[in-house]
Specification:
The protein is mainly α and 155 residues long. The chain has six helices and no strands. The chain has one domain.
């Protein structure tokens, strides 16, 4: 059984739209929180660098997606790198959220039904995203994509 290949245009546009939306939402949220004064000083000292690093990862994904759409070889490499990073961040985020359920703030234990809902909710987001990234990586590493990017470009 082989992994189906996605069209390169679909991969490029999907990740371009996804990255643009994530960047726009992230910047708007940070700007709104900063303007309203709801960002505590502890956050500015400890977490702001990680948020800017995350925005940088999304920016790399956006630039790489447009590079892929323009047919540059670095675009293919950049989107593949972005997919690997997105898989890692998705798994880390899902694990962190599930761990936060284990240490409930009021000291109450999460019921078995609550765990099922929490895990099912995570799987509705995590599994499709990882599957799409995996198929995209396989497509970008495939012979068809390699042949398309290795041919000489007309001037």
């Amino acid at each position: 059984m082989s992994i189906p290949a996605l069209p390169l245009a679909f991969i490029g546009w999907f990740f371009a739209i996804l990255c643009f939306a994530a960047l726009a939402i992230g910047v708007l949220l940070l700007q709104q929180l900063f303007r309203s004064g709801k960002i505590p000083p502890e956050y500015l000292q400890s977490r702001i660098i990680s948020d800017f690093a995350l925005l940088l990862v999304w920016l790399i994904g956006l630039v790489s997606a447009f590079g892929l759409l323009n047919g540059t070889s670095w675009g293919r490499t950049g989107v593949e790198y972005f997919c690997w990073v997105l898989i890692a961040l998705t798994l880390l985020s899902g694990g962190t959220r599930l761990a936060s359920y284990a240490t409930h703030p009021q000291g109450q234990k999460l019921t078995p039904r609550g765990w099922i809902v929490a895990v099912a909710g995570m799987m509705l987001v995590v599994l499709p995203l990882i599957a799409l990234c995996g198929v995209s990586i396989a497509t970008l590493r495939g012979d068809t994509a390699r042949a398309q990017f290795d041919k000489p470009q007309p001037r």
